[in-house]
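Backbone geometry:

***
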Amino acid sequence: MTILTDRLGLPAGRRPRVFVVGAHADDAEIGAAGTIGRIVSERPDAAITWLVLAAPDPVRATEARASAERLLAGVSDPVVDVRELRDGYLPFLGVAPKEAVADHAATDPDLIIAPRRDDAHQDHRLLSELVQQVFRRGTILEYEVPKWDGDLGTANLYVPLSTAESSAKVAHLLASFPSQAGRVWFSEDTFRALLSLRGMECRAPDGTAEAFVCRKLIF
């Protein structure tokens, strides 16, 4: 399989820096767990920082930390930062959301994995805007989160996943976020359907993929 981290331009001569951010406890995993797994597998030397902004519920905060730590178990000294900002109200909280992102500006990441700018959820959308304000150098991959709003859009960057990688992603989501089990959209069928749809669009060898928007890619 193609070396993803080479294609994304992560530096070969030093430890690459990656910043993963989600508004909520499961956002980054839903959008990019397979891709993150590929990065960890290919570059266990990566310095990865993981930020979750809105996890005021202690149960959700615990899920967020445990999930991130499991996904990043293959890298040394990952930084997992889970904040307790109010879920659903990020655009109305003044400076706190931007300060949370800016606290990690000094990491100067080579790759940022964040929500889509056109996401219908106000928390996701604000976070995407903040990431692009704070980080002016690294490549930004904007992931998608399926929801009842029906906001799935066109992607321009695809990461094909093997059958094993897709199955591992779905299993991780279901096991890591039991608090979400009662939500209609949080299901194996939803996650597999989106992986299959994006896999069809990019003609992935095993038929599954994650899709992103990358607005600026420098070679």
Q: What stands out?
A: The radius of gyration is 16 Å. The first helix runs from residue 4 to 7. The mean pLDDT is 96. DSSP finds seven helices and seven strands in the chain.
